[in-house]
């Protein structure tokens, strides 16, 4: 038997020799166990599954469940196992995996009979059995035509239709008894790579919960998302109303030339939501003197605030805006984060005592001198703005801490209303693959930064993990404290933003650390048939990111 050719593999600072053709999974077996489960690896800057064989000298960076990419693979693989379990136990039901909620994803089993808690226990036990048996999840490449025929035979029209828009001639199909499917991304090699999960009954469906990447060793405590779930269900209902529940349906509408109707319906629904919020606040205008608007990055808060102001004016109330940025403490007193960097998103980067004192005085009808912060010197300017609230006026404050009670601790609840704004996308890739709201906001931000902030898509991608950490810390824990939630997502928006963002993503190549994420988003956007922006109203939230807004949003 001839000697096998050896290749050199660099892992961190170690250089190790392996036989040519050794898989990543086999390489792992020769190494010290990792503290968290390994999901995949970057090989020479490209994302590869653990079954990937090495034929040349390579540099490996392991991807575990403590990373965004790793937890995404974990979640995708677990959803695949969920589908296998449901198909075995309830073959006449159709599984829908929908929006992210409650540190997991909301799911429904749709059929003639609804499922109860006892059925959920059976599903949970079946998933655990599949994991315990460490069954292989095998992958094979088939022609796109054969994949389309397969899904048509399985009565999966949304999947068959979507694959028509997939670039290339082949499709990766994954199998784990009793199912074969395409889940639009890498998987773990076997079910034993999965561990923790939880199914939470949430009628009429359930939530499949996973560990958080910050603590992959445990399932986080459950907090029932009562208010958020109402908004998500309304979002799903609107998707059904517009007949735009997945990408394939949107593409078919675009190809039929009917997308302007979808645009107008989506925008009208936004206006209706804005009117309801404004009317509810105006009904209590004698008490309510402060409106706080908060939400994660690129949720459209600025346009929302402008449109809400117009609604107030229609009701005879004049809005007065105050910027939280002017209440920053001096830079020398700014808190630092765990990396020793200035943490401007920390609530204690604000002069809370002065802010609350000014709010109280304004609500009492007194005049205050609002400070002006100088971002060049990092100190408060000598200039001030004189502000006094008249009887028919209301304060509007926009900022990431608006939902946090600490920000306005001295203001009675009857005098303020909190509004949470986020892009809770109603669209799915297909029945079992939801679109991440975070991805929607990231694509919005890339478009905005590129056009209006002189920042490349690559720089936005590099900054995004830090932005997400701030959201997880300072915004998401307070979602349920909102008096109103406004969903700024538009069913058609990704088909518009694709034209601007996709070409820029394609420019990001190895060895850029942002290449794998750029490649993932490029593949995602390739499924959309593009929509021209001409039919988008000038007051649309999407205009904040695309351009051409009638408001001063930049």
TrEMBL record:
Q: Which residues form a coiled coil?
A: none
Protein name, UniProt field: Phosphoribulokinase/uridine kinase domain-containing protein
Pfam families reported for this sequence = PRK
Q: Name one GO molecular function term.
A: kinase activity
SUPFAM superfamilies named in the record: P-loop containing nucleoside triphosphate hydrolases, ThrRS/AlaRS common domain
Highest taxon of the lineage: Bacteria
**The Phosphoribulokinase/uridine kinase domain, residue ranges:** 293-488
